[in-house]
Design brief:
single chain, alpha+beta, Fructose-1,6-Bisphosphatase, Chain A, domain 1, D-Maltodextrin-Binding Protein, domain 2, 5-stranded mixed beta sheet, globular
Amino acid sequence: MSLENEHQEATQLAYLAGQEICKRYRRQVITRVKADNSPVTEADLISTEIILNGLQSAFPHDGVVSEESEDIQGGRTWYVDPLDGTKGFLWQTDQFAVHIGLCIEQAPILGVVYKPIGNIMYSACKDAGAFRHALSNSASFDQLQCKVTQSERWTLVTRDRLPSQGLLDLIKRLGSMKLLFSGGEGIRMLKVAENIADAYIQPKAANTWDVCAPHAILSAAGVIVEYVDGTPIVYEGQREMTKRIYAANSENLAAKIKEAERETCLKSTL
């Protein structure tokens, strides 16, 4: 299955949206606050408009699930986060990105994550590999392939410098862990594909647009991505994921994470 057109369109739209986001960097205002207390900015909305208009024009029969718009029903489904890491954007960090992922038969087969600050494009298509491209340097085009850490002192990337008690209990059961802190769901997850971290465990269930694009890239890089109970992630047009997920760079570490999760859940029921 050739996805050359889809890949080209997704990377182009992510880039265009990212450039519009950058125009509003350091001078952004919140337009509204959602029910979950998360902010929405003008940058979120203009990025949404660019991506949705582009996808509907190029692939009019496809569906789209996006954070800042109503769902569009169709055959294949695109999952779009127009600005993943809005708080990082508002705080004027570089920890935000544009996500565009495509699912066919409920599985992620294409993913694009564009980090505007730094001008870095991550992308992957199923069976074609995963890549990191620094757009400011045409020669900097690296294939992403996870490497298994030989020691058992793993690095876990997480969002919070003060993780929840449940996540702390799970980490304790995993043994000696070094914690790495990063913002933006996609940027965090990609640390495993970049071999900066060995694993990522979500503190709570996310949304499909947060996960789909980085999921496709991690899978193409050889990273294991599942729900923490070991069941596969299925994209059925839903907005919310049913459970927390994890990403790990080896079968050994994946097995330890799932076992630690079972033990932590068992402890919480006693």
